[in-house]
Amino acid sequence: MTLVDLITSEAAAERKRLLVAASLAGIANSLVILFVNLAVHSDDSSGLRMFAMFVLAIVLFVLAARHTCHRTVHIIESALQRIKTRIVDKIERAELQGLERLGTAEIYDRITENVSVVSDAAGPIALCLQSLCILAFGTVYLAWLSLTAFVVVAAIATIGIIIYLSNRKEIKRCLREAAKTRVVFFDLLTDLLDGFKEAKFSRRRSRELRDDIVQTSDGLRLLTAKANILFNENAIFSTCLLFAVLGGLIFVLPRYIAVDATLLSQLVAGVIFVWGPLGLMLNTSQAYIRSNVALSQIEALEEKLDAATREAASSDAEDPWKGRFAALEASHVEYDYGPQNGGGGFRIGPLSLTVTAGEVVFIVGGNGSGKSTFMKVLTGLYPPSAGAVRVDGILVQPNNVAPYREMISAIYSDFHLFAKLYGLLGVEEASVHRLLAQMQLDGKTSFAKQRFTRRDLSTGQRKRLAMIVALLEDRPIYVFDEWAADQDPEFRKYFYEDLLPSLKRQGKTVIAVSHDDRYFRCADRVVTMESGKIRSIDRMATGPAQADAGPVA
Questions:
Q1: Of 166, 356, 481, 486, which sits with the fewest C-beta atoms within 10 Å of its C-beta?
Q2: Is residue 319 a part of any domain in this protein?
Q3: Which pLDDT belongs to residue 550?
Q4: Nearby residues of 376 by Cβ (< 8 Å), 6 or more positions away
Q5: 273: part of which helix (H) or strand (E)?
Q6: Whole-angstrom Cα distance, residue 35 to residue 44?
Q7: Is 248 found in the same domain as 369?
Q8: Are 374 and 524 within 8 A, CB to CB?
Q9: Residue 327 pLDDT
Q10: Is the N-terminal amide bond of 350 cis, ω within 30° of 0?
Q11: 117: domain range?
Q12: 138 falls within a domain
């Protein structure tokens, strides 16, 4: 996609009006110069009339130019708003595995930096449309003055423009490489910020990370500088091209044809008049090339997001369960991360497990045994590479995976707390405050206007906030990925001996990843994983129903 394509597709309904306005601006600009020349060579009696026409041409130019600029900016900004909305929609519908492979740096860069580049081109492009019309009328004026002079000027200008555009391919290459390098830079900067604590414990690690960031930043500097130098060389060349045209008219043309001083002065004035919009168009090519490269990068991102999209649009999603189920079954499921860093990727399976409604199941095993991956497959975040996930015998697939996920409240180890209770707007503040007190967070944060007043808490406290959100969602299935790992002994005991039994009594199904073997008795069954496979499934003698539990609001 190019900037012209963007404007053309967006302005289909008003394309003619935009071209008419740009043409009027060009005509009015040309008339201003024409009336000046006519006034210089006219008698005094026509001076007032010529002045009135001169003012009228200026008014026409201002009105037409304003309309062209305003509409072009509005068209481009509206198109960019649609692109951003479309990207957000595609992100929302993308699969987790696709986003994990894509990374966040490229998305941030495309939706901020690249969109800004296209937005900044709106003004110059609007002026370029007017300049194109001015150039057209100006060349007609030159040809009317002297056809021979026009041919000479056109020949020199054509050769110069061809030379001017010859390095465009190298400029595009530099800009594309700069865009890729910028994504790498953002990734490294994210490493520095997210891994700040870890970097503090190793000066060598910190120095090596810093060196990578500086080296990448320097590479970005070189690429950006090279592109800007080429742009500046083009600008200097366009000025030299004007000198060449003027030199041809003043020093060369009179040697071959008879040109009087009056005609020569008119030709020089005409060339200077024409060269203004031509130079503007040539210099606008910088913004045009940058915006085209940015649009191609945005288009590439959209293609990657399309490839990462599996589920149906929410409006097309079927819900065969209506928020209720009797049994959740994973049948011979496998998941393969694929080749990574030139080697084989981690895989799990085949795994088979059936969880009935109201059951509490613990998934246990060592680090790297595949517990979290299995949870993501079971909850529909990862599509199985083989096998199937069924709910009450109905296959979970792209056209119903969205309503299936709506039955699940999950807190993963890398959970995120949103600023507002999205999806829970209208929740009673009293219920939230009661849960805050129950989780001993009423002195740490509060709840007002559908949001928690403070989220910068310890990991354990933030997990308790996430638990409050999950309880407010009140869904039939709860999935907890090592929720108790960051809790103090008091809340760890509360989680296993109070909260889980209470959820079970409410008929909720709980699937929890755990390392706390002393609390395995609180589960109905314990599934042990090893090397991506289920090693054993043990039924507990007591189970959570035997624990003494208080109610959970």
A1: 166
A2: no
A3: 40
A4: 96, 335, 382
A5: helix 261-307
A6: 14
A7: no
A8: no
A9: 96
A10: yes
A11: 3-307
A12: yes
| HSE-up of residue 54 (Cα within 13 Å, Cβ side) | 14
SS3 content of the chain, % helix, strand, coil (to 5): 65, 10, 25
Which sign does the torsion angle of CA 184, 186, 187, 191 carry? positive
Alpha helices in 11-46, H assignment, sequence order: 15-40
Residue 445 and residue 298 share a domain: no
At 47 the pLDDT is 67
| Site of tokens 């699940």 | 408
Does residue 313 fall inside a structural domain?
A: no
In the block, tokens 């404007």 appear at 7
Report how many domains make up the chain.
Answer: 2
Q: Among positive and negative, which fits the CA dihedral 305, 306, 309, 311?
A: positive
Q: Which residues of 494-531 are buried (b: 16+ CB within 10 A; e: fewer)?
A: bbbbbbbbbbbeeebbbbbbbebeebbbbbbbbbbbee
Secondary element (H or E) of residue 178: helix 168-194
Q: Which of 276, 307, 338 is the last residue of a domain?
A: 307
Per DSSP, the three-state class of 380 is: coil
What CATH number is associated with residue 373?
3.40.50.300
Quick check: is 453 in a domain?
Answer: yes
Q: Are residues 380 and 427 in the same domain?
A: yes
What residues of the chain score a pLDDT lower than 70? Answer: 10-13, 41-47, 310-317, 340-344, 542-553
Q: How far apart are CA 220 and CA 19, in angstroms?
A: 39
Report how far residue 220's alpha carbon sits from residue 204's, in angstroms, rounded to the nearest whole number. 24
Q: Among residues 251, 274, 307, which one ends one of the domains? A: 307
Helix (H) or strand (E) segment spanning residue 193: helix 168-194
Strands 451-452 and 447-448: antiparallel
Report whether 106 contacts 316 (CB < 8 A).
no
38 alpha carbon, distance to own chain's centre: 55
Q: How many CB atoms are located within 10 Å of the residue 258 CB? A: 7
- 3-class secondary-structure state, position 94: strand
Cα 465-470-473 angle, rounded to 5 deg: 130
> In Å, how far are 181, 302, 378, 403 from 110, measured between CA atoms?
13, 10, 32, 31
Global pTM reads 0.77
d(CA 215, CA 553): 54
**Residues facing 340 on adjacent strands:** 343
Q: What's the confidence (pLDDT) of residue 42?
A: 67
Q: How far is CA 297 from the centre of its chain?
A: 10
